[in-house]
Specification:
six-stranded antiparallel beta sheet, 3 helices, 6 strands, 34% helix, 28% strand
């Protein structure tokens, strides 16, 4: 990992090692899908091809539903996924669903999460072909 990127990741997570380790596990899973870009802003870390397909962000401190030291993994699909692991799914645009998962430990990144990220990556790549 380039030192600058690592420095930005450390700053994003305010040096909270548990959250950094969870993020690194997400990043490793996402990188296994193929060529991606990673963008880090104040509020989120996004993964994309030409179009964004997954995001990591921090749950608000005031949220009692979100465990301390957890991170949120969001991904976009053209359909809604039903699962106990998904804490929320919204349709911001017709045919575009954003799903949110709480990641508390690395084992939360299971085969279902990998399957959904793979679908989100493919959905993102399909937009490139259509020119959307």
């Amino acid at each position: 990992m380039r030192p600058l990127i690592r420095k930005e990741i450390d700053a994003f997570f305010s040096g909270q090692q548990n959250r950094i380790e969870l993020y690194m596990a997400v990043e490793e899973m996402v990188k296994s899908l193929g060529s991606i870009t990673i963008d880090i802003t104040k509020s989120q870390i996004s993964f994309g091809t030409k179009y964004k397909f997954a995001w990591v962000w921090l749950p608000p401190d005031s949220s009692h539903k979100r465990p301390k030291d957890s991170i949120v993994l969001s991904f976009g699909l053209d359909h809604r996924v039903e699962s106990k692991q998904i804490v929320e799914a919204v349709e911001p645009y017709p045919g575009r669903w954003t799903h949110h998962i709480i990641i508390q430990k690395e084992t939360d990144l299971n085969t279902d999460v990998f399957k959904w990220l793979k679908q989100a990556y493919a959905f993102s790549k399909s937009h490139e072909k259509k020119g959307h």
